[in-house]
Amino acid sequence: xxxxxxxxxxxxxxxFDKAARFTKWEGGILDQIKACNAxxxxxxxxxxxxxxxxxxxxxxxxHSQHKTPCxxxxxxxxxxxxxxxxxxxxxxxxxxxxxxxxxxxxxGGIKINPRKYSAYELEKITxxxxxxxxxxxxxxxxxxVPAPDYGTGEREMAWILDTYSAMHPxxxxxxxxxxxxxxxxxxxxxxxxxxxLGVFFGLREVCNMPDIMKRFNLTTGVEGKxxxxxxxxxxxxxxxxxxxxxxxxxxxxxxxxxxxxxxxGLDVDxxxxxxxxxxxxxxxxxxxxxxxxTDALELECDILIPAALENVIxxxxxxxxxxxxxxxxxxxxxxxxxxxxxxxRGIIVVPDMYLNAGGVTVSYFEWLKNLxxxxxxxxxxxxxxxxxxxxxxxxxxxxxxKVIEKEREYILHGADEVDLVYSGLxxxxxxxxxxxxxxxxxxxxxxxxxxxxxVVAINKVGxxxxxxxxxx
Length: 472
Hints:
Blueprint: H1 8-20, H2 27-34, E1 38-47, E2 53-62, E3 70-76, H3 82-98, E4 104-110, H4 119-135, E5 144-148, H5 154-167, H6 194-207, H7 210-215, E6 226-230, H8 234-245, E7 249-255, E8 258-261, H9 268-278, E9 288-289, E10 303-306, E11 325-327, H10 336-345, E12 348-350, H11 352-355, H12 358-372, H13 381-399, H14 405-412, H15 417-442, H16 449-468
Parallel strand pairs: 3-4, 3-5, 6-7, 6-10, 10-11, 11-12
Antiparallel strand pairs: 1-2, 2-4, 7-8, 8-9
Helix pairs in contact: 1-3, 1-16, 3-16, 4-5, 6-8, 6-12, 6-15, 12-15, 15-16
């Protein structure tokens, strides 16, 4: 079957089937893991600012309830369709399983181009969508917890929370009905950059594996690695920024309006500000424009990070990709055909289903914060600082030497919320990377890292179903 006729959900199912044969589960349990449990398709009217009425098409899919609540973002995009939302919900199930976040997979989508609607219209759409979810019990801190995705952010999550709270007066855990909220509304510090930071932690861990780096004649670590990032949205920007801060060289950046390159490295913030001021990354003074926005994908580099939309690398352009590692920061940026081509060429694809799990991991931390009603670090920060001060004072007194000021600040610092969130995310991504790599190493027949990740996910979800009894 050609790339052009491939459904996104079909691609996820194909990857699932490829991995399922490396697991011990019988056909019935595999069918249950694979199936979407509930698909809610809705239509509702809104009145536009010009007085016209428009019927909005929207979806919410709950892929798996082996753990509850279901969890997954809501995207606002003109391309939204049922197949895409089902695929993304399925990926959420496997993603949560891999990173040991106790949620089932869910996803939502509203078929609009948010750029063509005023803030007031978007608010009406978001609030009505939330009301529709409430009617069918498709949202709630113990049922289904949405989050931001493509085309949505903190503002939309605040509208969802407000609508939910208004319709559930007195519900003490109402703030846990949605994540990715502004900090003032119960959000968690570090959520905005979480997906990009997770991409960085995951790829850094792969780059720290001597056997993998040796395969490509590369040194371990990320310093000096040449990186191309496609997409300068929230995920792409933060991925690029964390790599740049760690000493990697960003040799090209791509957006839908075009792509730019500089072999000596682009400064991510300078490019970001140039785009903010001019509306485009093109004609950046310290970069060269490429003929097409997709040209960046085919540049010579060590790591390619597609961080935009799905299916940007397919059977047609995969043979021209020159990267040694591909980190899928977006959901489904490679088609199954591209996967097979890269496996044959020995290029390692670090798969989306765990690499971009930073968002859901930190969403989990936010949900826990909402249920516990206390900010991370509030109880222990000052105690730790006082204890560290005491220990340092004792050591300095016994040795007669003083610690330099910069080190003193670091040692005495008690963990803030953002420190704990970063630390929890780092632990999650490192553990998940090793679980997947061990599965791959222990079974030489597994063809690639994506299949190994699916095997890990299927085994965890399968264990849940087996322990529940398949029909709880």
